[in-house]
Amino acid sequence: MTYRTKVKLGFMALIYLIAIAAFTGAVSAAENGAVLFDNAHLESIGNANWTMTGGYSDFADTIKAMGWRVDENKNQKITLDYLKKYDVFILPEPNTKFNPDEEQAIVEYVKGGGGLYMIADHAGADRNNDGWDAVKIFNNFSTPFGLKFADKWVKKEMPVRGKIEQDAITYKIKYCGTWGGTVLEILDPAIARGHVFLSEQNGGGAYIATANYGAGRVVAFGDSSPFDDGTGDKGSQQLVDGYNLLEADHRQLAINTMCFLFNKKPEDYPIKLKFYFEGGKLNCNPGEQKEFPLVLTNQTAKEYSNIIIDFYKNRPMEEKMKFYSMKVERIAAGEKLRLMMPFKQDDRQMFVLYTTVTCAEDKTADITGFNSIMVGVPIMFFLDSFHENDYNNRIKMLKNAVGEDGIFFTRSKYAMSDRDLMKVDVVAINAPKAGMKLAPEEVVALINHLKKGRGLILNAKGPDSNWGDNAGLNELLKELSIPASFEAHPEFKAGGGKPVEFEVKKNDYIFAGNFAKIMGESPSCVKIDETELKKKGFTFQVITTLPGSEIPVGVVLDGSKSNTGFNKIALFGSFHMSDGSYQMSVDTPTHYFNIRTIRALAPEKGAFASNAPQPGAANAGGDSKAPNGPFLRGVAKAYATGSLFIEDFGVKKEIRIMHGLNEEKALVEFAKIKGKLIKVNLRPDISEPTTDGFNAIEYRK
């Protein structure tokens, strides 16, 4: 029955209920209940794509497994009559405002007995820049429910370290997290209450709250990431899979909150087959053969048989990604089985392990979970973005690709320093914008990086480049005393910006495997003074050329036997890491070439294992007031207590900056700069080399 209409049970209805109760299995058979996911208010505009067929598909599958029908609203106007067809209405981070009639319909729907699930994100998450984020959208009609979303952007907190109330919402919840959302403010404790709270260090506040309004119920959630399964827009960026994270109980939280909205008991809807790896964090050395213990639990009163457990390296869960499989003949009701997963990996990396448990006799018992295995010290790859380099705004696929291969990716937003490169294995620099070149202190930082045996990739620009200039790279090569330069390729003319094919030559550094052709942007060529290079103790090999050509486009310089202390440097006249080169797929020879290049240039001992400087050490980046200190340029977009949100100049990414000003002063300053281009001087927290938070800010028009 929908909309919780009260129905008197007659004799036939009673017989029907008895038949349903006799149905075996942990999740009850399909009840006549229905859930509506909204997708008519730009829920799909964000990179995570919070829809029942995108990033929230696993959440939707859980609801189906609980026995309820799931539908999606793609373009229907929200009316009370429309909502009455459903027991629960889910709003996963809407990005356009509901009109007043729709807002009134939602409130009346809840008052009359409907269930409403509001899922927000941090303040300022305005994906379409119309002035309305999910926080504002919900707050426009949430007051009758006795709560509102705070205008905040809280820090990542996984697991949440505040108080967890012991009630039906938190049933079997030990760990849950936020990846930077907001919290709820309780306006009327008589009808609304919090259940899970953030730590005081993160500002406190209810991360999850519920309300009883009229005959209906409301769940309010401060972050969209915990229910995100990571299957949204894969061309956008590496996405959080909070839903299947084995270190969190977000799947259980989804069940609990849905049971609240349906006025059911969560213990009647158990996760049928649950698993975890013993020992918490999984670690091994490259090349080491290990067995990791997995515990599989049957949480039902029914025996299951013929269960298949598959193990994959990351998604997609396809045959080519699978590396091991096992079969469980039977598992009794309530039984725990301890199984062993054999594992060996030769390359150092953070190995993302996806595990699927499938049960042929009851598909609602299927479950997926992921965790990671640290194989040695993972490689840290650093891409310079400070010098307005060409193509740096077109590397969405690169970020996905290196992450899926267990390589840590980071990009700079300010001038390079020893501190920035401290834990970096391989640095990549694309041709800077014309007129820009690396500052002397940046060159020194690169020299120090290279003398530690770490890698460097220089990517030149070709005739189709938008604004890159090879003069900056050639100047850098001179500063490094390397007798090489990037020059115009005599055999290539402008190609209109289309991807260009290159031939991979046989070499000792980057294994080509069974492919000989890769894609890239329009090329320059590499010119080398072989006599001078040999005098310095360097050797080199040609890596890539245009098909049928002998003119080098890509080379690797090997200084391991020179007196410079340098190891390997790759010079590429073409950028092979752009979205165009990837052709929007990570399953290409170009991707394998890029990964093998990074691995070939990385030192044997991971830079990430190096000790960070202790608090109080000299700040290589300089004080925030120093004229050469690191800075961001961007458009001032929003203000919240203790922080400023700007749209980063060039990459269109929202950045949160802690400004340290008192409330009155900050509001005055923000009024001067809202919507204007500003320069923000930054001083990183000295105790955290990889932090994204800053405690100093300079306001300038």
From TrEMBL:
Native species: Candidatus Wallbacteria bacterium GWC2_49_35
Protein name: Uncharacterized protein
Signal peptide: 1-29
Keyword terms, alphabetized: Signal
SUPFAM superfamilies: Class I glutamine amidotransferase-like (SSF52317)
Gene3D superfamilies: 3.40.50.880
High-level lineage: Bacteria, Candidatus Walliibacteriota
